[in-house]
Amino acid sequence: MVNTAATSASDRILEAAKRVFLLKGMAGARMQDIADEAGMNKAMLHYYFRNKEKLFDVIFREASSQFFPRIQSILDSELSLEEKIRKFCSEYIDLCLKNPYLPLFLLNEVNSKPEGFIKKLWKNKDSPFSQFSKAIAAASPGLHIQPGQAAHIFINMLSMCIFPCIARPIWMAANDMDESQFMRFMEQRKTEVPRFIIASITK
Amino acid sequence: MVNTAATSASDRILEAAKRVFLLKGMAGARMQDIADEAGMNKAMLHYYFRNKEKLFDVIFREASSQFFPRIQSILDSELSLEEKIRKFCSEYIDLCLKNPYLPLFLLNEVNSKPEGFIKKLWKNKDSPFSQFSKAIAAASPGLHIQPGQAAHIFINMLSMCIFPCIARPIWMAANDMDESQFMRFMEQRKTEVPRFIIASITK
DNA sequence: GTCTATAACTCGATAGAC
DNA sequence: GTCTATCGAGTTATAGAC
Description:
By secondary structure, chain A is mostly helical.
């Protein structure tokens, strides 16, 4: 009744938790930080999410689903291979620029999970990765793609889109870049990376 | 006198600290874990390194100097550009395979350092990154390298060598790989990545 | 130098008033 | 639902015997 504010308490907690967890990770985050960020006190976090781990799980799942499934929809589209590559690079570079802490957060937390856990991210379905690899292989007639190379091409694409964003502080410092120079550099990459990939394939 | 063992106490602490810090990061590591790993008790860690932060700093510096300066020596060599690329990829893939937690550890901790800190890694010298970029630009006569592309080529190379190692758990799960299959995949990349880069340049 | 014991503190979690 | 107060476990760090 009273809470006609833009967001409910639990939503404000989730937003705050996302900021703090993505920045500091599970181990580095403090419930107090999240409470401060959300403008309320610790007891509220426990009232809504019971404990830190459950709150973290919600954030982790949300972050995962924001990052991984996009691959699928691009894959399923009716575009040509070259168009798929262009679209993929453009979307993933944008995603990383708009969520600077997302990739490193996911890589970290996946690394600290027990073995079997990761496979559950894709349940019984094929992983988007292996599907994309197959799509590249299938689209290869006329191109110079050797069997077994599809996987390399795919992870090359992922690497060139994502890595510069996670190495951003080092890259900026090493090249004396400011914020806007880095942004321009990454904008260039939306065309440079596809050009690079396609050149190496069609040579 | 007595300690004719292979390693001194402080060395054993450093080795243990490296394992624990690289695996769990500053926030996730426990002094008790390090003590256990080193086969002694917590008081010893404080005796030799005063506190957790100072111990961490030693590890961080060592890890940094293990990772970054190699670029320089390859750059300074008298090899052709193509040979430099091949050597760089081969060495960095090996480095990452032999130190699986090193790249993610550095990326994480660099991200959580205050702004100005990073530049101090290269003191007053040019960063190896910008130097390598210049070398690629200088070696470009006869190749199809546009001005401003050198930086892209260089970070492409870094990305394709390092990223697959930090995304290893996801990549293995997504492709149903076991340990030895992944190792073979990365061995292939020592030639695949240079081939990929050179193809895109000489097209 | 090395160990045990413990102080000092941080942090997640709960109890209970409103 | 929201807040204050506090408990109790876990951690860093130190004191002090040997």
